[in-house]
Amino acid sequence: MAQPTCIRRRSATICCGLPLWEIACGPDPERGELRGHARAIVAIGDLATGVVAVAGIARGIVAVGGLAQGIVAFGGLATGVLAIGGVALGAIALGGMAVGGIAVGGCAVGWYAFGGAAFGHAVISGAVRDPEAEEFFRAWLPWIMPR
Question: What share of the chain is helix, strand, coil (3-state, %, to 5)?
Fold first, then answer.
């Protein structure tokens, strides 16, 4: 059986105490790591922490991954100010299941909610068309509420 490949690469350029970029994938027995954890401005790995993070588990200002946490997060489970994903939790949440102040998704829960099943203060769903929600979504997200 083949050994899993370990990849560790890091930029020599340091900015604000962090490498400019780092890639860390796979187990590294020499360092005692079961998963690669990249920590850099642009971090890519099994786990990643950085300004831009791309990983299975990503944390950063912009995070992309299976589990993503950041100001802007894209992922299977995304949490952030702007969260986009299968399950999205954030001030603005877009996803299959969206929970937030503004929620758009198949199932949406929020102050302003738009979805097949939507719950909240002002709602547009299969069963309800709240005039306040229509006005809000027409003003702020015109691509989902054509005139």
Answer: 5, 70, 25
